[in-house]
Amino acid sequence: MLEIKVLDPGTIALKGRLDASKAEEALVLFKKLNGPLIADFKELDYISSAGISVIIETHRRLAGSGHAFRLINMQPRVRNVFFYSGLDRVLTIE
Amino acid sequence: MERRFARDVGSLAAIFDFVTEFAARQGLTEDQRYEVDLILEELFTNLVKYSSQRIEQIAIGLERSGPRLTLVMRDFDAEEFDPTRHRPKGNGGGEAALKSGGRGLALIRKFADEVRYDYRDRNGTITVTKRLDR
After folding, report:
1. Could you point out which of A8, B10, B71, B134 has its C-alpha 20 to 30 Å from the C-alpha of B113?
2. DSSP states along B42-57
3. With an 8 Å Cβ cutoff, are A48 and B42 in contact?
4. Phi, then psi, of B51 in degrees rounded to 5
């Protein structure tokens, strides 16, 4: 189960699991978002490399337009996946 | 415990349910369950994406012996696909970490203690060992 709520034009909240079966659906939604973006991971329980690819693609797209993409409130297990992928020093994780 | 799953990423929900059942029986922690989910997803999606095959199911086995957890994934009548031969990209951070490819295998190596691959009679078997006491 994955839920992505657009809280306002600049903030989204992710809930559930972002795995390979949900990555395409998530990418379609992320592509609709432009401008500076904050993604609240507070209720995201699981992410895999497929989910990370969605985040990276969004980071690249927004950075290419000069916009910030901030990832906030990650649970430790989810944060570890970013850390072990070497992304904690490339993405803005708060 | 062993079960077979359709060769489709849509099977992931059933695979995670399988892990949840196993984790409850074996008393795995939430951290351990997360890592098992992740290892199985990365291996399974690699087989779905890269292994050409005729048999439409992949078998997954989970077994615990004391502090040792063994995950076995069997692919039948398949071309050889050895995940241990694929070198993951470095995860030293920086822009290199943004490149796609190999990220899943790097995560498997991070969370698993040993990954072995055996291929005979057109059947591939990936065996992952994970110690639970560290």
Report:
1. B10
2. HHHHHHHHH--BS--E
3. yes
4. -95, 115
Residue type, A89: R
H or E stretch covering B91: none
Domain membership of residue A87 as a residue range: 2-93
| CB interface of B with A, residues 109-128, below 8 Å | 110
pTM over the 0.90 mark: yes
Distance from CA of A8 to the nearest CA of B (A): 27
CA distances from B98 to A53, B58, B111, B117 (A): 9, 30, 20, 28
- Give residue for tokens 């430790």: A76
For residues B90 and B106, give the distance between their C-alpha atoms in angstroms, rounded to a whole number: 8
CB pairs under 8 A between A and B: 69
Structure tokens at B130: 């994970």
The full set of domain ranges for chain B reads 2-131
Report how far residue B22's alpha carbon sits from residue B37's, in angstroms, rounded to the nearest whole number: 11
Chain A interface includes B42 (CB < 8 A) = yes
Q: How close is the nearest chain B Cα to the Cα of A48, in Å?
A: 6
Number of domains making up chain A:
1
Rounded-to-integer distance, Cα B28 and Cα B21, Å: 10
What CATH fold (topology level) applies to the domain B2-131? Heat Shock Protein 90 (3.30.565)
**CATH number, position A84:** 3.30.750.24
User: A50-79 pLDDT, tens per residue?
Assistant: 999 999 999 999 999 999 999 999 999 999
